[in-house]
Amino acid sequence: MSYRYVAGRLVQSLVLIGLVVSTAFVLIHVAPGDPVTYLYGGQAVSGDALARIRHAWGLDRPLWTQYTVYMGNMLRGDLGYSQINFQPVAAILGESLPNTLLLMIPSVLLAAVAGIVLGMTAARRPGTGADYAIGAVSLVSYATPPFWLSVIFIVVFASRLHWFPTQGMATLGATGGGLARVADVTWHMVLPLGVLAWWYSASFTRLTRAAVLEESRKYYLMTARMKGLSEFRVFYRHALRNAMRSVVTVLGVQLGTMFAGAVMTEIVFAWPGTGRVIYTAILQHDYPVVLGFFLVVGAAVILANLAVDVAYAIIDPRIRYA
Amino acid sequence: MPFAALVVLALVGAVGALAPAILPRDPNAMTGDTLSAISAAHPFGADYLGRDVLTRMAYGIKTSFIAGLAVAAIAMSAGLTCGLVAGYYGGWVEHLLMRTADALLILPGFFLALIVAFLFGGRLITVIMLLGLTGWPQIARIARAEVLSLKATEFVESARAAGASNARIVFREILPNALPPVLALMALLVSYGILSEASLSFLGVGDPNVISLGGMLSNGLQYATTAWWVPTFPGAAIFVLVLLLNIVGDGLSMALNPALTVASPGRSDR
Question: Read out DSSP for B179-228?
Fold first, then answer.
């Protein structure tokens, strides 16, 4: 593996995260109004008192000092304090993020398996009925807004058929621990997971099909065939392995969009993840929480991209830092 | 198929554009038919304030079209300009523009738009500008790659030999030839604009004074189990618009970028 490449990407990612945090800082200061006016503006607080609060919070210090303090806090993982929920932002997000991941990771895995199999099936028989059918399905799932499919699922499977609960992550007042709890959460998870897996699978299908088709022109596959390998081995062992590189790279770029889909699905299902947090924070104008959410998602997406690239630099010696 | 989709899109767009003229109702008029089910008076039902869902949807579709087309236009012109300049001039200009594009590609553009719309108030024009400016990097990269290969061609060489200015070479010689692969993305950009505007409105940072399909869906969410038509029909409209645009997009890329979609054994780029 190329250490130069990995080091280069690492520095680039750190600079990007620094940029995201700085952007947040600049945005807060450029945005109309300041937090003090926002929190106390409507109340009968004297201008004198407002100035004292500003002073106590350091809002009267030079911008550069505020910036260094802000960056220092971020480095220590202090994302600020929500004056509306009376909780540190990091705690609010830390509580909800695992629930988002609990929903997102199985959805991505399910979508990956389904999408790769479908994309592979289509790529092995380009131009046939199966290819067109798979193409049509992925076109539809690609176009389905996750928040709308969530509504449909609730209307059909929860409200009409009563197969699944309409919302939440657990039955209210349920006391059972252990396996009963796992079963309850799984039961609540089926619909949102289905929505996300359906939506994510389109990207996997389309990317796999395109990447495998691209590979199928190359000579090494002909070599594999001439060695007498079965078509299954040729495609699933040789072509897929090389095709996965571009699939995973593109998915790294789409991670932000995938997260956005999860956020909106959570909102419809009242799933207690980051989606609910951001939705409520927007309604309540809870600035620190909205900003903290932006920082965490930004950093997560940048780091995930870094992880993907580094993993490939280790696997594939051809990659060099450009 | 793509052509049929384009025709349907044009029809839907015309309905949206003409909505104020052809629809009898005021989209904000509250009737007594609160949460009225599907009926002759309300073909798609009425919402929690008794407003006609079909009428509001027509206005929402209009917003979607405005947002989608404007976002695509901004992303397209910004991306083309940056890509052409970067590819043609090279050097530090290229470095600066392309590193910015790379950074924006990795950053979750949707969330950047979300945060800015939240802090500054999401007027439709703000939302459009934001989404347009987060959508350009992809276009810039493709345009730059095209310019790099076109720069070395004989016709550019001969234009330069004939004494053409840089601007003339870029806009008259290179641009027309660099357009096809970029235009293939047009439909996808429009659908990005429509879906993102709907999503921002759904999250509550859209323009409160404009009827948006995403906002309608979000407002109807709490009636999903009691009055399913309130959130379902606006969402269906988003779905249909995005689906049609993707069909058009596939058609465009097949027509303009045949190398990307057809796998012909024996091509030289191994």
Answer: HHHHHTTHHHHHHHHHHHHHHHHHTT-S-TTS--HHHHHHHHGGGTTT-T
A98 CA to chain B: closest CA distance, Å? 19
Judging contacts by C-beta atoms under 8 Å, the chain A residues touching residue B119 are: 27-28, 31, 287
Per-residue pLDDT of chain A (322 residues; tens, 9 = 90+): 577 778 888 888 888 888 888 888 888 778 776 667 766 766 777 778 878 877 877 777 888 888 888 888 888 888 888 878 888 888 888 888 888 998 999 999 999 999 999 998 888 888 888 888 998 899 899 889 999 998 888 888 877 777 877 777 777 666 767 777 777 777 788 889 999 999 999 988 988 888 888 888 888 888 888 888 887 888 887 888 878 877 887 777 788 888 889 999 998 888 888 888 888 888 888 888 888 888 888 888 888 888 888 877 777 766 654 4
Q: Which residues of B touch A322 (CB under 8 A)?
A: none
Q: Class of the A89-315 domain?
A: mainly alpha
Task: Decide: A256 and B107 in contact? Cβ < 8 Å.
Answer: yes
**Pick from B184, B172, B200: nearest CA to B76:** B184
What are the start-end ranges of the H helices in chain A? 3-30, 35-40, 47-56, 63-75, 89-124, 129-143, 146-153, 178-215, 219-226, 231-233, 240-269, 274-284, 287-315
> Model's pTM, two decimal places?
0.85
Interface probe with B: pick from A27, A147, A162, A290, most Cβ of B within 10 Å: A147
Domain-embedded: residue B43? no
Domain count, chain B: 1
B266 CA: distance to closest CA in chain A (Å): 7
Looking at the partner chain, which of A24, A32, A298 has a beta carbon nearest the beta carbon of B108?
A: A298
**Among partner residues A16, A140, A148, which is closest to B238 by beta-carbon distance?**
A148
Q: Which domain holds residue B182?
A: 69-260
Q: Which residues of A233-269 are buried (b: 16+ CB within 10 A; e: fewer)?
A: ebbbebbbebbbbbbbbbbbbbbbbbbbbbbbbbbbb
Q: Answer whether A144's CB lies under 8 Å from A197's CB.
A: no
Confirm whether B128 is domain-assigned.
yes
Bridge partners of residue A286, in order along the sequence:
none
B224 touches chain A (CB under 8 A): yes
* B116 interface with A at CB cutoff 8 Å: yes
d(CA A230, CA A235): 9
